[in-house]
Specification:
five-stranded antiparallel beta sheet, 244 residues, metal-binding, Sulfite Reductase Hemoprotein, domain 2, 2 domains, iron-sulfur, Sulfite Reductase Hemoprotein, domain 1, metal ion binding, iron-sulfur cluster binding, five-stranded mixed beta sheet, globular, iron
Length: 244
């Protein structure tokens, strides 16, 4: 595993900075802005992985990095490791369409798994409803909330490619505690099955999804009634039909 420092065509360096699934306090934002000014950062850019890239001269790089810890920020791991988690704003407090608390789960997953060594980089995406604003079906591991403390988990998606792949459903209506047990099982299976630098999607294509399926006794499910997402059903043309 390495750290996300990348030399740019203009000779400057890009530093990929991780927050809690893109969530920052005003103090962190203010502190990062101050550090960026004082360290001569050329530009700051938001990324699709909910991180912030700072473009900076090489001689100022260490000064900026040294100040991140005081802000409870860090440089993203890169390479054969679990990457920064993407999570939407799905929660009761932030999104009226959320069926479950995707943001809180995403932050907890990042706190536990970020930087864990894997055969190839692993990207995780969590969504609070079937709209999937974080593209969970195109992540190595994707999670979609169905209800409070009830999530569907997908494996083997791949985005950022001319031939994107949707992940396969490996567990339904999993509780939050079950998600963590499932993650541990999945990462262990991936480590044992993968060839060197082989993505999860490639392992699934080579071996099928069955080797990754968890034993039924491993995870608890939540079978409580699920609220209908009327806007989404309307978008699919299912509202009011027998298919809904």
């Amino acid at each position: 595993m390495g750290k996300a420092y990348f030399k740019q065509s203009n000779g400057m360096y890009a530093v990929n900075i991780v927050a809690a699934c893109g969530v920052m306090t005003p103090g962190q934002m203010e502190g990062l802005g101050k550090a960026a000014r004082e360290c001569g950062v050329f530009r700051l850019k938001l990324t699709t992985r909910q991180t912030i890239v700072a473009i900076i001269d090489e001689q100022n790089l260490s000064s900026l990095v040294d100040r991140l810890a005081d802000l409870e920020l860090m440089v993203s791991p890169y390479g054969n490791a679990v990457r920064a988690v993407k999570a939407c704003a799905g929660s009761e407090a932030l999104c009226p369409r959320a069926l479950g608390d995707a943001l809180d789960l995403g932050i907890k997953l990042q706190e536990k798994y970020l930087g864990r060594e894997t055969p190839k980089d692993v990207k995780i995406a969590v969504a609070g409803c079937p709209r999937g604003c974080t593209d969970p079906l195109c992540a190595d591991i994707g999670i979609i909330a169905r209800n409070v403390d009830s999530f569907d988990v997908y494996l083997g998606g791949r985005g950022g490619s001319a031939k994107p792949v949707h992940g396969s459903l490996i567990a339904e209506k999993v509780t939050e505690a079950g998600v963590f047990k499932l993650f541990d099982h999945t990462l262990k299976a991936y480590a044992s099955l993968a060839q060197p630098v082989e993505r999860i999607s490639a392992v699934v294509a080579r071996m099928g999804i069955d080797p990754f399926l968890p034993p039924k006794e491993l995870i608890a499910i939540n079978s409580a009634g699920e609220p209908e997402d009327e806007d989404f059903l309307s978008f699919l043309g299912l509202k009011g039909s027998d298919a809904s």
